[in-house]
Amino acid sequence: MHPHHRAPGRERVTSGPHARWFRARLAGAGIIDMGAGEHASWVWRSRRVRRARTSALAAGVVFALGCATTGVVLSILPTGVSVAMTATTYRIGDATLHAVAPGVYSGAGTLVLGHNGADLTAGGSAVVDGARWVGFCEVAAGGAAETCHLQSGTRSLTARDVWSAGTWRRTYGDGMRVDIAAARGVPVPFPVGR
Q1: Per-residue pLDDT for 44 more than 50?
Q2: 29 backbone dihedrals φ, ψ, rounded to 5°
């Protein structure tokens, strides 16, 4: 390494008039090492520039933490799923079941519809996140509410859905809530949001 490339120190600064002039002009300026090697250089920054840079960095950190917090909250909140049913298809989220007989739909899962007096009943079976789920729902006459019982192995859930303005507002027995966009009375015997 050449002698003129060594790190700055007091031993390189003389007490001559030029050294005193530089010291007076650069008092309080920070020296930022830009790396080592033959082409190394230092950038001199005033206190004002350092304060502005520190403020900008602090604002960036606060913004990043805010975004991270928002992301965590949004990932915890259950997302809505839409359900649609016609005479030939039943769509739930990205999955589509096709009618194979009156009241029977099959595809990525199975849905069977029936009637118990004025109430509509629905049984469903599907693999959700690698687990086989079986569900049974009873939609009250008028289609304003449904009660579902869902089971995967030894795990069982109950859900109470109340229809309001184009959405089933589902509340699971453990208190978890999810909104399901659907037409009034369309049954959802599947563990949406679980």
Answers
A1: yes
A2: -80, 140
Segment among 48-57, 104-113, 145-154 with least mean pLDDT: 48-57
| DSSP characters over 96-153 | EEEEEETTEEEESEEEEEEEETTEEEEEEEEEETTEEEEEEEEEPTTSSEEEEEEEET
Closest CA to 118 of 88, 140, 95: 140
- Cα–chain center distance at 7: 48
The CA distance from 172 to 20, in Å, is 77
β 81-85/177-181 pair status? parallel
77-97: per-residue pLDDT in tens? 345 688 999 999 999 988 999
Measured CA to CA, the distance from residue 50 to residue 21 in angstroms comes to 22
Cβ atoms of 194 and 173 closer than 8 Å: no
- Model pTM? 0.57
Q: What is the DSSP letter of 9?
A: -
Residue 188 and residue 132: Cα distance in Å, rounded?
Answer: 16
